[in-house]
Amino acid sequence: MLQKIYDSLLTLAYPQICQTCSNSVENSADGVVCRKCWQKTKIFSGNETLCAKCSAFLQEKPANFQTFCHQCDEHFYDAVIAVGLYENALAASVLHLKREPFVAKTLKNLFISAFENSPFQDATVIIPVPLSKKRSLERGFNQAEILAEILAKEFNLKTDKQSLARKIHTPMHRAAMDRRARELTVENAFEVTRPKLIKDERVLLVDDVFTSGATTSFCAKALKKKGADKVYVLTIARAI
Questions:
Q1: How far apart are CA 201 and CA 194, in angstroms?
Q2: Are 188 and 225 in contact (CB under 8 A)?
Q3: Which residue(s) pair with 202 in the sheet?
Q4: Is residue 52 part of a domain?
Q5: Which span out of 9-13, 98-102, 131-135 was modeled with the highest average pLDDT?
Q6: Taking the alpha carbons of 92, 94, 95, 101 in that order, is the dihedral positive or negative?
Q7: Angle CA(100)–CA(104)–CA(108) in degrees, nearest 5?
Q8: 44 partner at 20 to 30 Å CA-CA among 59, 74, 111, 133?
Q9: Strand partners, 238
C-alpha cells in the first residue's frame, strides 16, 4: 500500500518518462521503463529454444534436445545464461546502467532469478568483466561490478574484482564491426594478475550485455590458461 502511494506521489512530483516509448513510468521498481515495455520484452522462461552454450535465441518453441547455434563452438566459456533479449526494457535498462550505478528492483529480481534457475550453482567465485583504466575513469564505476555485488550479497558468494584485468583499451562502439573484427579488438585485451587465486576455481563471469561473445570468450581463455576449472557467464541481455 505504501509503495503504491509513493509511486503515485513520485509520478505527480517527478514524472519519469519511459526510455523506450516515452510514456509515463508509474512504478519506481521498473526503473527507466514502463510496465508495458517490460511486458513487450522477451524474458527467457525456459519455454523457448536457446543455444545450449551461448544462449542465442533460436526459436519460440522449446526443443526436446540440446540445440547449438555453432557460432560459439570455438568460444572458451562453458555456458552462458541471460535474462532475456537485448530489446525494449532490457536494452534501455542496460544503457541506463552504463550511465548510473543503480539497478531497479524489477531488473534486480530478474537477474537474481536467472542465476537461481541456472546450472551455475557450483560456481565458487564471481568475477565481473573488467573495464580498461581509461573507461573506468571516464565512467566512474564498472556496471559489471554492480551486478556482481547483487549476486554476491544474495547468494553469499565471494567476488574477485582484481584477478582479471583489461590491459588494452578497446573501442566502445563496436556494433558496426563484423564478428571477426570484434574478436580482434579484444583478442589479447585480458590478463590474469593473481593466478594463484584463479587456479581450480569455477568462475561466474558477470557482464551487462552479451553481443558477439568475443569479450567473455577471451576473458574465459585468460582465466582457463591460468587454471580456472570452469567459466560460466551470466548477463542481463543477449543480443539477437
A1: 12
A2: no
A3: 230
A4: no
A5: 98-102
A6: positive
A7: 115
A8: 74
A9: 85, 210
Name the DSSP class of 70. S
Among 194, 183, 184, 126, which Cα is nearest to 154's? 126
Residues 6+ apart with CB under 8 A from 98: 139, 143, 208
Phi, psi torsion values for 130, nearest 5 degrees: -80, 155
Residue given cell 569455477 in the structure block? 202
The residue ranges of DSSP E strands in 41-120, in sequence order, are 49-50, 57-59, 79-85
Q: Which residues contact 83 (CB under 8 A, 6 or more apart)?
A: 43, 44, 90, 107, 110, 111, 114, 235, 236, 237
CB burial of residue 97 (10 Å; 0-12, 13-18, 19+): buried
Domain span including residue 27:
1-40
Q: What is the pLDDT of residues 45-85, one digit of tens each?
A: 999 999 999 999 999 999 989 999 999 999 999 999 999 99
12 CB neighbour count, 10 Å cutoff: 8
Q: With respect to residue 62, please indicate whether it lies within any of the assigned structural domains.
A: no
Residue type, 80: V
- And the C-alpha cell for 12? 505527480
Residues 86 and 23 both lie in one domain = no
